[in-house]
Write a structure and sequence with these properties.
133 residues, five-stranded antiparallel beta sheet, 1 helix
């Protein structure tokens, strides 16, 4: 063998003599089992959360599986992220509607656009300008 290729006998190597069997490492027993053998069901019963309510909005609409808000014949694109969720719609100005999900205003759409334009990011820091000294 070339230089650096020879290796010393390692303790990780298993040498079997006649009649001996290799014993697996006890820490590896868990990953050698099927997931169903490790799973234990929860003692608590699952109850889905309540549907969000939008008391200050004009309508509550469920977003379709393709991510659209359907109002009559209009189909307004929102996002597939909200598929199956209910959103609130409120007319904030003449022919301009605000779309909200839970406590967050997502954006606006109007009579001409068939997509929701994003609202201001609610997570931005609101920093007041500094006063000159």
């Amino acid at each position: 063998m070339g230089r650096g290729l020879s290796r010393p006998a390692s303790s990780s190597r298993v040498i079997l003599s006649s009649g001996d069997q290799a014993k697996p490492n006890p820490s590896h027993r868990a990953w050698m089992r099927y997931p169903a053998g490790l799973y234990t069901p929860s003692a608590r019963a699952y109850s889905p959360p309540d549907e969000p309510e939008y008391p200050f909005h004009d309508r509550t609409v469920r977003v379709t599986q393709c991510g659209r808000i359907c109002i009559g014949r209009r189909k307004i694109n929102l996002s597939v992220v909200f598929a199956g969720q209910t959103v609130g719609i409120r007319e904030v100005s003449d022919q301009i509607w605000l779309v909200s999900f839970m406590d967050f205003d997502l954006g606006f759409f109007d009579q001409d656009e068939d997509r929701v334009e994003p609202a201001q990011n609610p997570f931005l820091l609101k920093v007041l300008p500094m006063c000159p000294v």
